[in-house]
Amino acid sequence: MDHRYYNYYEANAADISLEDITSSEQNKQILRRLRDDDLGWHDHITLGREGRFYLTERCELLLIREGDDLGWLGYFIGRSVKLQGLEIWHLNLPENEGWEQQIHAFLDGVARNQSIRRICAIELGEYESTAFLRALGNWSQLEELVYSRNILDSNGCSVLGTLLESGACKLKELLLYNNNIGDDGVAALASRLRSIAPSLKTLGLSWNSIGNDGLSALVAALESCTSLEELDLSDNDFSLATAGLASLSDWLQTAVLNLNELSLRYCAINDEGLQALTEGAVNHCKGLNLSENDSITALGLRYLSTSLQCDSCRLESLFIGSINIGDDGAEVLARGLIGNKVLRCLELRDDEGDI
């Protein structure tokens, strides 16, 4: 396949037969609705691969097979003024002749869309992932970016960070789940967050191999995130991150915001880390998730209990499931709840349902 520029699609759009560029009747009908901008109540589209399961309650599902022309698909997506959301799953094409041109043609078309508010890119191939990141700068209207289970090394974080720094997107939600970013990648990304910081409400960085250095670098960047409501750092390794957790607590105490939700589930937080975190988290968060941090003992819970007794406690929901608190821990928690008039939800359940 020779590289086709946008002018090619513009010149041939009126005459192209949808049957010739799609692999199924369903895909043909989706392209027809995109072409005519007649999406009905389906204003989200999911692109996926056959043999996978996708949740499609609110969106159209287009399964890419042999016979689907990605260039034309991207062109019609780019022209739509009603499409609000696009999910791209498993866009890792076989490396046969013309596959790079297919990717470029698809993203060149999609990048021209000015109505999409939410984009998800999940399990892309290495080449496709890089091409996607470079196309992001065209979506000035984008409000939510979900980028999950992709290859995002420090170089990729730098590319994404450069985009954020440019101010091209004013994101409200940035969810970078399970990309194995690491400390260096987080540092590269965090230093560029300031351009979108005033608009950012939700930041998700779970499953990214973040440790103490990465957490400390992130907290330094969070000072500009004055509208942040949710922060998800679950499934990282904070077993040696007492200093980072202390800086997170300090930030919470000095920031002009109050988080609705702070999730630190399954982060290997120990008693020392919990002590460093507790004051800021309990007094400046509505919701705190510490579930599955099974290194926490009754000693760590004592620090938490003391903060729960303070008049400054703001915590309304506390999740500490799958922690072996034992009788001593339960007694410590109970003392902390005496006189507490704020906490409304306390979850202690473990995986076996013994609590």
UniProtKB/TrEMBL annotation:
This is Leucine-rich repeat protein. The keyword Repeat applies. Pfam families: LRR_6. It comes from Skeletonema marinoi. Keywords: Leucine-rich repeat, Repeat. The keyword Repeat applies.
